[in-house]
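Exercise 7.
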Amino acid sequence: MVKRYFVRTRSLEEGMRIDQNIKDRMDRILIARGTILDEYLISSLQKLGVGGVYVSEGEEDPAVAPKEPEKPLCAMAINNISKLRTPDPAKVKLTESVKKRVSEGIQYLYNNSDSESFANTTSSITNDLMKAIQDNDAIAVDITALKTSDEYTFKHSVDVATMSMIIAKEQGLSKDDIYKIGIAGLLHDMGKSKIPLDILNKPAKLSDEEFAIMKQHTTMGYEILKEKEEFSPEISFAVLQHHEKANGRGYPLGVTSDKIVPYAKILSVADVYDALVTERPYKKSFSQRTAVEMIMSMTEELDITAMKSFLNSVILYPVDTMVTLSNGEEARVVKNNSGSVLRPTVVSIETGQVYDLANDLNCANLIIK
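Solution. The predicted structure, written as tokens, is:
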């Protein structure tokens, strides 16, 4: 007999069996019903803001176990999905061993900026990321798959580095440039290691005085790196300028686009996007769609070339994702259209109707909800 009951997330224990599916904003299952919880999964539930879940005990009878209903696909939908389904471009994939090495390496760097092995550790991490990109010739990135650490600063550094490297690759930059941008991405927030912890970890919006101190992290990071001869000026200046804006309203120098180094222009796009989609104690995260729309609206602040390369590198709706259209129909994504990150080609599962949201003028008023 199965006993099912509700448990607050903070009271969950390893070994408990979850009795519901946990899904993301795009209806993809993150933790499947029946999974045995471990420390990592419990921590993930807490980070997702899940207040509590149903768990079960005892032997489960498959004949009576509740199942989440799935809408059947009509014959035409099955035919069109099979005919039109185009796999997504290769995405960066980090193995668990690489994630562990990267996480430990990043934490070491941020805690030991004066270490003699600082440059070698940075190089080792960047080589791991380069290999992950080269192994399957990755040209796209899925930020939800880049979890390397539970600590925001470390996760953010790796996310920004990986996205920046993919953006640089999309722009056709050399392997040497991609490598250097990876280093700049990993170290772009290095100056935060010098910011007082009560400001860095404050679970509320910073005061004007506190924010003025926080903004010093770009200069502090630059000061750390410029003394290390292993890092080129392009890297240290990218760290200094990653919060500069094309319209001159950024910091610390307040310079316009013509005075911002190319690496910093790429870092800025990746940094803004990752900050938008990441939940923090003092703010909720934006959905990937909303974050992309916000990026697209920042034409006065972000470099247009870097922005376009970013939009060509991010997949919002992976092939096979189920979406709801503004006409009320449920549909499956069958193809992502280059240059139209918000408008893939989808097939209605109820009618089999094909909606090419990017190229069909008849779909101009149709959006993914």
